[in-house]
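Reagents: none. Just compute today. Membrane protein implicated in regulation of membrane protease activity.
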Amino acid sequence: MMTGLVDFYGVHAFWLWVAIAAAVLAIEIAFGSGWLLWPAACAAVVAILSLFTHNAALEIGLFAVLTIATTLAARRFWPRNRQPETDINDNVARLVGHHGRVTAAFIHGAGRVLVDGKEWAAESVDGSALELEAIVEVVGLSGGSRLRVRAQA
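Predicted 3D structure written out:
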């Protein structure tokens, strides 16, 4: 049984490493962790080198060393805490930083603003009364869908 595997490896080493690379890459694509890219790439490199080496122990050792080295390098340079981006489907959160104009004068710090072609309930950050047609900047959210705005100078 073992001699059959050794013979198979001797004849098809390149394709075996390509299959390993493809399998690891398929798992990476299925789960999307980003960490299995390195072993997949290392298996592809070893596949190419197997065309010249014809030494199973060297190839397995090289795969192990390359995988460890690339994974450690990736840990060093890959961003660990990627900030979650705002959801493009969240109509309210995407408005932060946008400018608009007052469509209903603010009374007691609350009124309505037009931002990106849609009218929104809003409150001023400092509680000031904003005049009709005043230009405002959206600086945050209050209560889920109420915009927090400040007057533009």
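The mean pLDDT is 86.
Action item: order primers for follow-up constructs.
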